[in-house]
Structures are given as structure tokens and as C-alpha cells.
């Protein structure tokens, strides 16, 4: 490390472990750094970065409670509180694959595993600070949101042979900047030219992004599959694949891809939020419940640890209970109550009275206390909608629909839909889900809990047309429920046999989906015997 340069630099250390902080201070002083500030908490770090310019920030990953360093850096990037010219270095004693994936995904300037020697620190800091200094004109242009100027600076940089060791990084920045300028075709040609010389992973990723933007989806999918074979790019491949699948409205496949990515790097909350929305769109209530719980688990003691995420676990458990078998319902109700208890323990001053009333009303409905649920919902103030979150309003719409107030539920969904359309920050997936809920609740007057029972009664009374229609509605909102799939399959087979029809394309699609759900789930002995009889009937109809 050049001591004269180090003397001019200002360093911020974010660490709450006294011994680690002392060793780092000693090491930095040995390397020539003199202007060193120390903070222990995320809030102090944000204040320091807003008050002073730092050339270097060294942050403990496991700051305070397990993961606050991780979320601090995420927030600094999202809020643009960290200048592009400032080097950010993570240090961590935990080098498990999960932690490393989580850190690398955030793309800090450097990651240093504890314990490290002064020599290790010298080598890493020298490299990252040299890079920041040499590329400073490019970073400044990007920071000032002048991508065209940044492109000019990159081109100038690439004409200097003395900068050759940083050419790969500059080329990577060029591709990203071409995309930022909206020059998609030019970016595509650029990435292809790079790959023809050397097959960099970043160039493959860039080329996939251009394919997706240019609607060359087949080419994108082929390259994603190739990328997934590379161990260091599997996570990015799953993310790109899920993005492509969402674009193509292949939501079940997208949920599977997001889940795979989450297993590799579980601390990414945005990915869990995407899984939550995809689960709701695909009516996969168990996956929705699991995604909501993972958000609480990984947000614990971070800036994302808020009352709303505990409420969402309770809401998801009730959604699941509405569609589950009776033996599961009581357990899910208990888990909803547990989540509310954790909320009250962690946030005793949180103003969530109305949201809890809605959850309580839904629990009452699950317990067949419909009139009590109605009475509790009547206590709510409709004038406070503007102050309520989208999730709170969505749960309220579900509660009103369940007790029979369909028009009121649709009115609430209208408010949420308009809010989402007016807010560019709102997730497109969430809007898609709200619109789906609105469409389904306009067509289906019964709650999930009532639908199957109503259809069974109609079927037993010989009203096959009404039973079939209601079973189809039930299967629309509960496509993972094997009992409902079996009932729909039976009603479909009976209708085809009664009307002496062969299986056509539409019926074949319904039959295939029902059988997929049945064979993926668990049946009782009686249901299994019934399923075999239905399959025999269907075989005769071909």
C-alpha cells in the first residue's frame, strides 16, 4: 500500500466487536491510514456516510444481530447513499456457501474472510483502491446519471494500454452502460463480440438480458440453460430464467426457479417476496405460507423487520387454512395466532388494531362463527383506507368476500388496483395478483371453504351442471387440493358418459390437470379406490 496515498484517505469501519475493531485499526495504521472513523450500528453508519465522504468502508457482515451488515449495504445501494467512487469491503468469519453466495450476490468491491493477516489486507485494499482511483472518471459519470458521458470515458480508458489489467472490468461496465442508454441492439452485438473472443460469464449474462429485451426468448432460454451448467453462475441463471418465465406468464415454472435460487442464497428478501407473489398467482397456498415465514426468518433484526411481515404470515396461514383439509385447519389457525403473538412481543407499540381485527374475523369464519365475523368487520372504519397498506386492504377484501359482502370486497380491490397502477414502484406481479383476485371474486360468490361443500351437495342431488361449474370454480382457486381435483375429475367423467361424448381438447386439459394434482398429493384409501374407478371410465371414453 502506498503510504502517502493512504494518509490522504478517509476510512469508515463498521463493526461492533471490540477485538476485531482493535485489530483492524492496528492493521490499517500499519498500512499508513490515519483518518479512521468507527461506528457500531447501521444508523450511525448511514449518518456518517451522509456527513462525510469516505474513500473506503470496511463493514462486518455479522454486524449486531447476525445479518445487519448485509442489509445495511443493500439499503445504502438502494438509496444511493454510497458513492460509486467509495470502495466497500465486507469482512466475515463465516465462510459457509450460503453466506458467500449472499455477499457475492450484493457485489461489494471486495470480500475478506476472517482471520486475515496485514499482508492479506494490504493486497486486497491496494487492488480495490487502485481500481477505484483509475476508474474514477467513469464512476463519477455513472453516479451523476450521465451514461452517455460514461461511455465516452470508458472508450478513452480502453485506448490506454497501461490500464490493461482493468480492461475486463471496463468492458463489463461498457456493456452495462450500453443497456442503461437503451442501446440494446448495440449491447447485443458488443456482448456477442466479447464471447467470440473469450466466454466471460458477465458477457453471457449481458447477452441473455439483451435477448429478453428484444423478445428473442428462445435464444435467451438456450443460453440460460448453458449458463446454469457453470457452478459460479447457477444463481444468476435461475434469476434470469424466472424473469423470462414471468415475462411469458409461466408462473408455476417461475415459482420453481425462484425457489431454487432462494435455496442457494436465502438472505435475498426480494426473491422471497417474488416467491410470495408467484405463489398467490398460482394459488399455491402452502408455498405462499412458506415464503411469508422465510421473509420473517431472514428479516429478523434487520431494517426489514417490521410488523407487516408478521401480519403477512398470519394472513398466509389463513389463506392456506381456507383451502386445506379440516385436520390441517386448526394447526394453521394456531400458527396465525402465534405470528400475531410474536408481532406483539417484538413491536408492542405497533398500531395494528384494525389489521388484527380482520385476521380475527377470518379466523372466526374458519371456525364457523360467520355472524361473529360479520359483527367484527362492521367495526372497521372505511374512511381509513388511504392510510392502510395494500396488503392490509387485500386481507380486508378477502374477509368481506368470505362472509358474503361481495360488492364491498370488489370495491376494496378496485382501490388497490388503482393504487398499483398509479405507483410505478409497485410490483407488476402484485398488480397481476390483485387483478386476478378481482376477476375471481367477481365471478365466484362463495368462499374457498364453501365451494367444494356446495358442489358436493349439488352433485349428490343430481344437479350435475351446477356441481360441475362449482367444482371448476373450486379447482380454479384450489388447484393443489387433491380432494377437489378428484371431485372435478369424477364430475367431468360423469358428464362425458351421460352425454355420450368423447374426450375433446378442453375436457382433456381439465382431466390432465386434475390427474396431475391427484397424483402429486395424498389420497385416502376410499379416494384411491374412487380414482381407479374414474380412470376406468375415462379409458372407455377415449
Describe this structure in words.
With 542 residues, the protein is mainly alpha-helical. The protein contains 28 helices and five strands. The chain has helices spanning 3-8, 18-30, 42-51, 68-78, 97-106, 118-134, 136-143, 147-157, 167-180, 184-197, 201-213, 217-228, 234-247, 251-264, 269-281, 285-299, 307-323, 326-346, 353-366, 370-377, 390-402, 406-422, 428-443, 448-460, 464-477, 482-498, 505-520, 525-541; strands at residues 10-14, 35-39, 56-60, 87-92, 110-113. A five-stranded parallel sheet has the order 2-1-3-4-5, with helices on both faces.
Q: Tell how many strands the DSSP assignment holds.
A: 5
Gyration radius over CA: 28 Å
Biggest sheet descriptor: 5 strands, parallel
Structural class: mainly alpha
* Overall spatial form: globular
Q: DSSP strand (E) fraction?
A: under 5%
User: Reading side by side through the largest sheet, how are the strands ordered?
Assistant: 2-1-3-4-5
The helicity comes to 55-70%
Mean pLDDT across every amino acid position: 92
Q: What is the terminal-to-terminal distance?
A: 79 Å
Treating each run of at least 4 consecutive H or I residues as one helix, how many helices? 28
Low-confidence stretches: none
Amino acid at each position: 500500500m502506498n503510504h502517502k496515498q493512504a494518509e490522504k484517505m478517509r476510512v469508515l469501519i463498521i463493526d461492533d466487536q471490540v477485538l476485531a475493531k482493535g485489530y483492524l485499526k492496528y492493521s490499517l495504521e500499519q498500512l499508513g491510514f490515519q483518518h479512521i472513523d468507527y461506528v457500531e450500528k447501521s444508523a450511525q453508519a448511514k449518518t456518517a456516510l451522509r456527513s462525510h465522504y469516505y474513500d473506503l468502508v470496511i463493514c462486518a457482515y455479522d454486524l449486531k444481530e447476525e445479518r445487519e451488515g448485509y442489509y445495511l449495504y443493500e439499503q445504502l445501494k438502494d438509496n444511493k447513499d454510497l458513492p460509486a467512487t467509495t470502495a466497500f469491503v465486507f469482512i466475515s468469519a463465516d465462510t459457509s456457501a450460503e453466506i458467500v453466495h449472499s455477499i457475492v450476490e450484493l457485489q461489494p468491491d471486495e470480500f475478506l474472510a476472517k482471520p486475515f493477516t496485514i499482508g492479506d489486507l494490504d493486497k486486497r485494499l491496494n487492488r480495490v483502491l487502485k481500481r477505484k482511483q483509475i476508474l474514477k472518471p467513469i464512476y463519477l459519470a455513472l453516479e451523476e446519471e450521465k451514461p452517455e458521458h460514461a461511455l465516452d470515458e470508458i472508450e478513452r480508458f480502453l485506448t490506454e494500454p497501461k490500464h490493461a489489467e482493468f480492461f475486463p472490468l471496463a468492458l463489463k461496465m461498457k456493456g452495462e452502460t450500453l443497456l442503461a442508454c437503451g442501446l440494446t441492439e448495440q449491447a447485443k452485438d458488443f456482448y456477442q463480440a466479447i464471447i467470440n473472443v473469450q466466454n466471460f460469464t458477465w458477457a453471457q449474462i449481458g447477452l441473455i438480458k439483451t435477448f429478453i429485451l428484444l423478445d428473442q426468448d428462445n435464444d435467451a432460454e438456450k443460453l440460460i440453460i448453458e449458463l446454469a451448467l457453470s457452478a459460479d453462475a447457477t444463481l444468476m441463471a435461475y434469476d434470469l430464467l424466472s424473469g423470462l418465465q414471468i415475462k411469458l406468464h409461466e408462473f408455476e415454472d417461475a415459482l420453481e426457479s425462484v425457489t431454487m435460487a432462494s435455496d442457494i442464497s436465502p438472505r435475498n428478501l426480494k426473491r422471497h417476496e417474488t416467491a410470495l407473489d408467484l405463489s398467490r398467482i398460482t394459488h399455491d397456498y402452502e408455498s405462499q405460507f412458506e415464503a411469508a415465514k422465510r421473509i420473517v426468518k431472514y428479516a429478523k433484526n434487520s431494517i426489514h423487520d417490521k410488523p407487516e411481515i408478521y401480519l403477512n404470515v398470519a394472513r398466509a396461514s389463513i389463506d392456506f387454512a381456507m383451502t386445506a383439509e379440516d385436520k390441517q385447519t386448526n394447526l394453521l389457525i394456531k400458527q396465525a395466532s402465534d405470528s400475531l403473538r410474536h408481532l406483539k412481543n417484538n413491536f408492542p407499540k405497533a398500531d395494528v388494531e384494525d389489521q388484527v381485527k380482520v385476521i380475527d374475523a377470518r379466523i372466526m369464519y374458519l371456525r364457523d362463527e360467520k355472524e361473529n365475523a360479520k359483527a367484527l368487520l362492521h367495526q372497521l372504519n372505511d374512511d381509513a383506507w388511504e392510510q392502510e397498506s395494500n396488503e392490509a386492504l387485500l386481507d380486508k377484501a378477502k374477509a368481506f368476500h368470505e362472509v358474503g359482502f361481495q360488492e364491498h370486497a370488489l370495491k376494496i380491490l378496485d382501490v388497490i388496483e388503482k393504487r398499483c397502477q398509479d405507483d410505478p414502484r409497485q410490483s407488476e406481479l402484485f398488480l397481476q395478483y390483485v387483478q386476478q383476485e378481482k376477476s375471481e371474486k367477481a365471478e365466484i360468490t362463495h368462499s374457498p371453504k364453501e365451494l367444494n361443500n356446495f358442489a358436493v351437495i349439488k352433485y349428490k342431488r343430481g344437479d350435475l351442471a351446477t356441481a360441475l361449474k362449482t367444482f371448476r370454480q373450486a379447482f380454479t382457486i384450489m388447484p393443489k387440493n387433491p380432494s377437489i381435483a378428484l371431485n372435478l375429475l369424477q364430475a367431468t367423467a360423469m358428464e362425458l358418459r351421460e352425454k355420450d361424448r368423447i374426450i375433446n381438447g378442453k375436457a382433456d386439459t381439465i382431466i390432465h390437470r386434475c390427474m396431475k394434482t391427484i397424483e402429486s398429493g395424498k389420497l385416502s384409501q376410499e379416494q384411491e379406490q374412487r380414482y381407479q374407478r374414474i380412470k376406468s371410465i375415462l379409458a372407455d371414453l377415449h
